[in-house]
Inverse folding.
């Protein structure tokens, strides 16, 4: 089968053996769609560690090709969505409602330390598959994983329907946060520096801030927010200046080079919480339901490419696979169709 292999910081389309079922609880799926995640871009830029020689990709949907002898709830031909956050179920974290921090994650993370889904076929444990409703497309289904991560993060906040929400970053994750909180009845403001993303965000939200024209703090001098979300990984200091008393700061973006200076007494005096969150945690079913009910989410998907067109797919997101440099962005969620 064809697959995109990550090897020594490069990504190449190669012919590799088609996986086959070895365990009784495994399912072989024919991959129909996989979204490009920010993590994939971080890996290819050397900013997020991944195992060399693996297949990248993890935001996926497909059709069941074959099932193991003990798999009873899926059959050949079923449409499915993959939960790529594998966990053992027996370690301290799994037994204490934190499976997204599983002790085995360093060798089971799909598309990072374990073969992913930028391929024609993928082998998965049946317990990590969800049924794909008939009226959701394979492309829409690729949003389930990142949306599940968003819902897990929001579940850890004090969010209420009337909350004033500010999301910094109008990429796919930022748009998902915006639409998810909007669906909860919140007043949502998004901000970014990318011209393309600002234009796209204005199609979905009434209030969009341009941080090229004016910085975040200046734009919000006379405003405060109950929940602020940092998808950039480097806006936390500014966000602490605009979050209201009793509010939450949600740290989502990954920028390992950035460090912030924070005054703990300010958090104490104002009852402000800083929350870090990664991956999903029993939030796939709510994510699928939200995708079914709110058709705005599918507008986040702007481009689709074949597996053979993978270089163009990453180029749309500003990444030159030949040089590793990132330039101007011309797309939001980009989906690869094997």
């Amino acid at each position: 089968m064809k697959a995109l292999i990550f090897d020594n910081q490069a990504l190449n389309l190669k012919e590799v053996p088609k996986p086959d079922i070895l365990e009784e609880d495994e399912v072989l799926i024919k991959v129909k769609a996989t979204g490009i995640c920010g993590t994939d871009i971080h890996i290819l830029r050397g900013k997020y560690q991944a195992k060399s020689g693996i297949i990248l990709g993890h935001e996926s949907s497909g059709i069941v090709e074959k099932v193991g002898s003990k798999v009873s709830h899926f059959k050949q031909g079923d449409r499915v969505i993959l939960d790529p956050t594998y966990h053992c179920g027996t370690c301290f974290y799994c037994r204490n409602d934190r499976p997204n921090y599983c002790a085995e994650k360093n060798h089971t993370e799909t598309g990072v330390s374990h073969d992913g889904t930028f391929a024609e076929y993928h082998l998965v444990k049946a317990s990590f598959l969800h049924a794909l409703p008939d009226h959701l497309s394979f492309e829409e289904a690729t949003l389930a994983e990142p949306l599940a991560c968003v819902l897990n993060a929001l579940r850890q906040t004090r969010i209420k329907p009337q909350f004033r929400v500010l999301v910094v970053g109008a990429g796919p994750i930022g748009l998902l946060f915006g639409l998810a909180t909007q669906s909860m009845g919140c007043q949502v403001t998004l901000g970014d520096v990318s011209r393309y993303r600002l234009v796209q965000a204005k199609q979905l939200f009434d209030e969009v801030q341009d941080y090229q024209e004016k910085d975040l703090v200046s734009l919000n001098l006379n405003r405060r927010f109950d929940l602020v979300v940092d998808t950039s990984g480097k806006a936390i200091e500014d966000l602490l200046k605009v979050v209201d008393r009793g509010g939450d700061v949600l740290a989502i973006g990954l920028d390992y080079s950035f460090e912030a200076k924070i005054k703990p007494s300010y958090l104490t005096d104002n009852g402000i919480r800083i929350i870090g969150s990664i991956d999903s945690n029993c939030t796939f079913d709510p994510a699928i339901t939200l995708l079914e009910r709110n058709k705005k989410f599918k507008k986040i998907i702007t481009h689709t490419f074949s597996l053979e067109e993978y270089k163009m797919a990453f180029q749309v997101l500003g990444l030159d696979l030949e040089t590793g440099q990132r330039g101007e962005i011309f797309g939001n969620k980009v989906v690869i169709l094997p």
